[in-house]
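Notes from hallway chat w/ T.B., transcribed later so I don't forget. T.B. wanted the structure written out for a chain they're using in a teaching module, and asked if we could keep both sequence and structure tokens in one place. Agreed to drop them here.
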Amino acid sequence: MAIANPRSKTAREVPHEIRLTVDRWAIAIDKLHRIDRATWDEIAATIEWVIRHRFWSGVILSAPNLREKWDKIQIQRQRDEDPTPSRLPRGTGRHEPTPGEYADGEQSL
């Protein structure tokens, strides 16, 4: 005979919890649009980007969390989508000149 777990959810509790979750998501997305002034297209594109992103897809698991991290996500998204690098790649702290770059005609080793 199986013993009922007092912490298990009954069929009647699950729809209520789902409704609360959907409400929390809707409120967070509405605030993102209305208060934070994100456009609907921008929100949709960011959600799609987050889903595909290696790091953020594991971090953003709810709409309230998306809103909380919105600015950081937008910075990362702009960096990833910018075709012109604004800084040297990691690990390169200096520029090694090519032989033709010396003004006096010296050759590098």
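Follow-up for T.B.: The mean pLDDT is 80. Might be a good example for the class.
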